[in-house]
Design a protein that fits this description.
Layout lengths: L1 H22 L55 E6 L13 E7 L4 E6 L5 E7 L2 E6 L8 E6 L4 E4 L5 E5 L5 E7 L7 E2 H6 L7 H8 L3 H10 L1
Antiparallel strand pairs: 1-2, 2-9, 3-8, 3-10, 4-7, 4-9, 5-6, 5-8
């Protein structure tokens, strides 16, 4: 009986020691980076946005209009993403959520990209979309894909590369919620081939097993 009591106390002691490690962690970043400064007078940002005095808040701080309106699709990839996040709906600050409307032309796509700070859940309002995401290297880079019809829902886990492609014969519209006030977006092709300054073509040639001239041609496109 005494041994059981000692074992129980030992487990409790272990939990007491490890619990602070579980609940005490750095806050998740709300932008790409936040450089520390020693003098607060030199600081211009916080992790997120400065907060308005709550007594000065109005209904307009929590309101965004016009998301029902179709957006023109004129770019090379054939889609238009309208984001509703903390930058244009300030009431989202600290709430950990945002929204996008995506308009797709025929054969249009939201090209392979990732959100470094958010999981995304998408619902298709109209049209037909081929959607999918690719798992991490440790999982073998498996492709998870579905063809969505009106009313279908698909989830893209945080940080994983994903895409949507309009495979229907008419324009498509989707709405998606993201689990961050500022989820960020990294479009793979633009990032790799359109960085500023450009990545050394020899680096990309080796990585993609391409001729350096092909890489430079791709960089010129982005």
């Amino acid at each position: 009986m005494a041994m059981k009591s000692l074992s129980f106390l030992a487990i409790l002691s272990l939990l007491a020691l490890t619990l602070p490690l579980v609940i005490s962690s750095d806050p998740s970043p709300l932008q790409d980076f936040c450089i520390g400064v020693n003098n607060p007078a030199n600081g211009v940002f916080v992790n997120g946005k400065f907060c308005k005095d709550p007594k000065l808040a109005t209904a307009d701080d929590f309101f965004f209009a016009g998301l029902h309106n179709a957006r023109a699709v004129t770019n090379a990839v054939g889609s238009n993403v309208t984001a509703v996040n903390v930058n244009n709906l300030p009431g989202l600050n600290t709430l950990g959520i945002s929204l996008v409307r995506i308009d797709y032309g025929v054969q249009g796509q939201n090209p392979p990209h990732t959100h470094p700070r958010a999981t995304e859940i998408l619902v298709l309002q109209e049209g037909t979309l081929l959607v999918g995401f690719v798992s991490s290297n440790g999982d073998g880079n498996r492709l998870f894909t579905k063809t969505l019809k009106q009313g279908d829902v698909f989830v893209f886990p945080e940080g994983l590369i994903h895409f949507q492609f309009n495979v229907g014969r008419s324009p498509a519209v989707a709405f998606a919620a993201l689990s961050s006030q500022n989820p960020g977006v990294i479009t793979i092709a633009n990032t790799v081939f359109g960085s500023n300054p450009p990545i050394n073509p020899n680096v990309l040639a080796r990585a993609f097993q391409l001729d350096a001239k092909v890489v430079m041609d791709l960089q010129n496109k982005f």
